[in-house]
Amino acid sequence: MGNIVAVVGRPNVGKSTFFNRLIKRREAIVDAVSGVTRDRHYGKTDWNGREFSIIDTGGYVVGSDDVFEAEIDKQVELAIDEADAIIFMVDVETGVTGMDEDVANLLRKVDKPVFLAVNKVDNNKRAADAVEFYALGLGDYFTIASINGSGTGDLLDAVVEALPEKEDTDEEELPRFAVVGRPNAGKSSFINALIGEERYIVTDIAGTTRDSIDTKYNRFGFEFNLVDTAGIRRKSKVKEDLEFYSVMRSVRAIEYCDVCLLVMDATRGFDGQVQNIFWLAERNRKGIVILVNKWDLVDKDTKTSKEFEQHIREEIAPFTDVPIVFISVLNKQRIFKAIETAVEVYKNRTKRIKTSVLNDVLLPIIEHNPPPAYKGKYVKIKYIMQLPTPQPQFAFFCNLPQYVKEPYKRFLENQLRDHFDFNGVPVSVYMRKK
Known about the structure:
Distance between the termini: 51 Å
Strand content: 15-25%
Shape: elongated
Mean pLDDT: 82
Low-confidence stretches: 25-40, 200-212, 238-246
Order of helices and strands: EHEEHEHEHEHEHEEHEHEHEHHEEHE
Number of helices: 12
Strand order of the largest sheet: 2-3-1-4-5-6
Largest sheet: 6 strands, mixed
């Protein structure tokens, strides 16, 4: 694993702007609202040939009554524990504040390199004003302006020089599983239960997770990246910019993942918004596992789960070949079954079937159940092959592809599912001219 640098400080000193500049893209949310960056946010960057991960943390506040501020403080402390070096960012415009002193007190107890970065220093007067930060007792400081990059080179030179040497290992491309769903369905709690640490802020207030964050999972023979996302709301309820960025990041997480773990709240049912997320994943041809969370809160008898499952399958028809797992994150019921199922779906999505096997199995079936004649013309399917795409797509070569209608394409898809197991994966069938 490579080096990690944590960026800490009180709210609104420019940490996220600095983070975005380093990773060369808009990944963290930047906004003038205190508490915007709630979770630790990771990105990769390099300087002078040294690669390292950087963590953008929430603003550190001591003694706040705000439930989020208390949780943010825990996240900052966890980030400091993970880091090899720490950049402590302060704001020259406001000078030394009580909160800065609180952070300095925390960092003085840490046996790791700490670099004091005085942000928003973009002229000589502000450079002179920065002298007061010697009062924090952390030694020399670096003056920077994260908005335009001024001074960050000297800071990063010093940070990279202080990083311990670690062996470089070529990281293989791991499968990406995105945990998606409505706000407050239990997504972050699900990941926390899996990895056994409080990586994500978990409260009972909808919209807590505003950023999408990757967590490498390596337990019980499984290895992949878990992506927690902000809950996706209806567009009519997206009132503020922060909510907009969170929804967009969730959508992007779906677009760039391999399997979507769709967490739904059993007490709310498989409502329209959950269905929208399901069809978004299906349109992007992603593997899908539906996790029915809070199943412990549902009054049930011996038929309840079958009836609930049947209702979901009716709503997602015709794509009904999707695994449904009933879980309780609170009681840790079947959460590992959920992961086992997701791994199976990933294997199904990346499955390659030999052309000879495809033709040996399916051509006799097609011969006994040919496409219906159209205007007196008969369609003859002569050859089948799987296309070289990341998800299962099949080309059926025939004499009159334009006459093959959707019902018969669904028949072909069902035959593929029956004989080759594509549970949880959208399958695309194309008719091609032979």
